[in-house]
Amino acid sequence: MIIIRSISRMVRVAQQARRQDKAIGLVPTMGALHAGHLSLIRACRRENDITVVSIFVNPVQFGPQEGFKKYPRTLQQDARLCKREGVDIIFFPDAKQMYPDNHRTFVAVDNLSEVLCGKSRPGHFKGVATVVAKLFNIVSPNSAYFGQKDAQQAIIIKRMAADLNLPVKIKVLPTVREKNGLTLSSRNVYLSDQERKDAVVLSGALNLAKGLIRRKVLDSSRIIKKMARLIRTKKTARIDYIWIVDPDSLRPVKRINGHCLIALAVRFGKTRLIDNATIK
Amino acid sequence: MIIIRSISRMVRVAQQARRQDKAIGLVPTMGALHAGHLSLIRACRRENDITVVSIFVNPVQFGPQEGFKKYPRTLQQDARLCKREGVDIIFFPDAKQMYPDNHRTFVAVDNLSEVLCGKSRPGHFKGVATVVAKLFNIVSPNSAYFGQKDAQQAIIIKRMAADLNLPVKIKVLPTVREKNGLTLSSRNVYLSDQERKDAVVLSGALNLAKGLIRRKVLDSSRIIKKMARLIRTKKTARIDYIWIVDPDSLRPVKRINGHCLIALAVRFGKTRLIDNATIK
After folding, report:
1. Which of A138, A236, A280, B248 has the fewest CB atoms in 10 Å of its CB?
2. Is A166 in Cβ contact with B11 (below 8 Å)?
3. Of residues A37, A103, A124, A259, which has the active-site annotation?
4. Which chain A residue lies closest to B109 (C-alpha atoms)?
5. What is the ipTM of this complex?
């Protein structure tokens, strides 16, 4: 396994691999790797000749109060995990290389970026789309791997890749959870014991919704109300949003009659967690 | 020479050429080819194994009243010219393929896009940057060729390619002019005889500025005033802007002391023409 810090070297290595007709898979991460990332890395390894894990805490996707500085940075441990998983390359550029002072170009995916998490985090998805477009151009992967946990992100990246004719297959893998249902997230380290206990209510609320839908309760606002009531039983929980939306347009669905995405964001103390379920 | 209308076929043909280590050159055009385009095509032919000319009148770079519909479309003549010049591929996609109904992604180059032509044409350069990013991803050229006539466009495309780490060399070739100094432009066909005569004043005003600078008149506002006075001697001329700017930041330069770009846009009747000169 090699760690590449220079963009130009990463480009050279990737171009050489492509010329040798090797399939490159990319797992873009912000580091602080957990079992969710590892499931992406394993899928990437199965389907490609070369697995690149990018580790870059992307400043432009954080709002001013969103904890860019305190985001966990654990390169040594990440590198150990990657090596164990058989990763070929860690791409670990610094922010000055990725965003030199005269950087002025941004990629925006309109309509999809202003709702759900985009409403609470203005500019977030513009930052995500921009860095992912850059990473795709640097690493030139055949396939790139994202988690279903960040459902809106996956939808936006898919739309961006299609719209900009980026020659990359976007693969979205299932959310990895603890036994109690809590989704794995690098932000879980911020939770106190009580908050961590309370946060289990997110998957509980999604299961409640699924149960209601199975029992033919199809009115979104009724389902959302019941979910909210359940979440509010937890003292440390403060709901940011609960939405039931069309998974292509992300527009709210009033009455469920086909594919939909149930997405929620809830703060536990200062930590904002997200979760979602898709209904077919 | 082949004409490719399908994006997916263009991608396949380009990928195959790249695998054979052939250098691809792209000349992005909106058709209505003239000697300015031909000079780009010749440079492209000299420097690459495969020359692709894209012809696409890009709807998203036209404002509502900016003549998208009446823009000259002359495919048969363009194809004849391209064939004569030894072009390998004309890429001629339709708007529905380039912008399907669910297209939502745009590339914006902040700061550089809102000044000069961007001020008179809001959204124009977002449309340009978006379509050029798409074309780069579809054709995957090693080099792409643009005219110095569209100076701001060339600066924005260079910035975009660098910022998004697009692996394309941007080549900018000198403006081609008629003997009388008028820049070649597909829009010249709109000019009446009188307007065409008057439009020669643009290069005249740029020459006036260059002469002043040679004689050490370095105050931008004084130069601009003299240029404006000259242009206003032509009855059909209505000045949109005259600016002297830094060629990297496009910020106005008060006093000339190094590289600068003198750029102007003037309407003759209903036709808006641009021209520029660089001072070293």
Report:
1. A280
2. no
3. A37
4. A105
5. 0.95
* Last residue of one domain, picked from the residues A143, A173, A203: A173
Domain-embedded: residue B280: no
What is the reported pTM? 0.96
Q: According to the model, what pLDDT value does residue B19 have?
A: 87
* Domain CATH code at residue A190: 3.30.1300.10
Chain A positions in Cβ-Cβ contact with residue B123 (cut-off 8 Å):
none
> Which of B173, B199, B215 finishes a domain?
B173
- For this structure, is A37 an active site residue? yes
Which CATH number goes with the domain that contains B90?
Answer: 3.40.50.620
Q: What is the pLDDT of residues A193-211, one digit of tens each?
A: 999 999 999 999 999 999 9
Put simply, whether B248 touches A (Cβ < 8 Å) is: yes
Q: Residue ranges of chain B with pLDDT lower than 70?
A: none
Q: How many CB pairs under 8 A join A and B?
A: 79
Query: Is B83 found in the same domain as B217?
Result: no
- What domain range is A169 assigned to? 2-173
Q: How far apart are CA B26 and CA B46, in angstroms?
A: 12
Residue B7 touches chain A, beta carbons under 8 Å: yes
Whether A110 and A207 map to the same domain: the answer is no
Cβ contact, residue pair B159, A15, below 8 Å = no
Q: Do B102 and A160 lie within an 8 Å CB cutoff?
A: no
B96 at interface of A, judged by CB pairs closer than 8 A? no
Q: How many domains are contained in chain A?
A: 2
